[in-house]
């Protein structure tokens, strides 16, 4: 819900599997994408979630990358984002790392 509320009409979000999601920010430069990711991370951290009437603390780790002209498929960008995601987790979670 927080992701959907944060997206512009031109952006796309989807679940990759498990707890992993991808968000495409069309036309965003690196700074705008990082600001979006940080804002989303902060909102999730502040809001948490409710499950069976109990408030839970929730955080997100985000791996960020740009699509490059030399990428032969979306898989290349997803692999870079995945590497950055695992770096975010290794560096303490609840953070944004850029590939």
SSE diagram, text form:
Elements: H1 2-6, E1 12-17, E2 20-24, H2 30-47, E3 49-51, E4 54-56, E5 62-64, H3 74-90, E6 96-98
Parallel strand pairs: 5-6
Antiparallel strand pairs: 1-2, 3-4
Short description:
The chain is of the alpha+beta class and 99 residues long. The protein contains 3 helices and 6 strands, in the order αββαβββαβ. The mean pLDDT is 94.
Molecular structure report:
With 99 residues, the protein is of the alpha+beta class. Helices cover 40% and strands 23% of the residues. It has 3 helices and 6 strands. It has helices at residues 2-6, 30-47, 74-90, and strands spanning 12-17, 20-24, 49-51, 54-56, 62-64, 96-98. The strands form 3 sheets. It has a two-stranded antiparallel sheet with strand order 1-2. The longest helix has 18 residues, at 30-47. It is globular, with a radius of gyration of 14 Å. The two termini are 26 Å apart. The model has no long low-confidence stretch (mean pLDDT 94).
- Report the order of strands and helices: HEEHEEEHE
Enumerate the strands of the largest sheet in spatial order, edge to edge or round the barrel: 1-2
Total DSSP helices? 3
| Classification by helices and strands | alpha+beta
- The dominant shape is globular
Please describe the structure with a list of short key phrases separated by commas or semicolons.
single chain; two-stranded antiparallel sheet; alpha+beta; 40% helix; 3 helices; globular; 99 residues
């Amino acid at each position: 819900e927080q992701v959907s509320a944060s997206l512009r009409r031109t952006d796309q979000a989807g679940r990759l599997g498990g707890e992993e999601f991808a968000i495409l920010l069309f036309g965003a430069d690196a700074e705008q994408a990082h600001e979006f990711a940080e804002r989303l991370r902060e909102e999730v951290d502040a809001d948490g979630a409710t499950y069976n009437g109990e408030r839970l603390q929730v955080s997100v780790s985000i791996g960020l990358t740009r699509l490059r002209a030399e990428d032969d498929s979306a898989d290349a960008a997803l692999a870079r984002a995945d590497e950055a995601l695992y770096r975010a987790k290794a560096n303490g979670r609840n953070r944004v790392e850029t590939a």
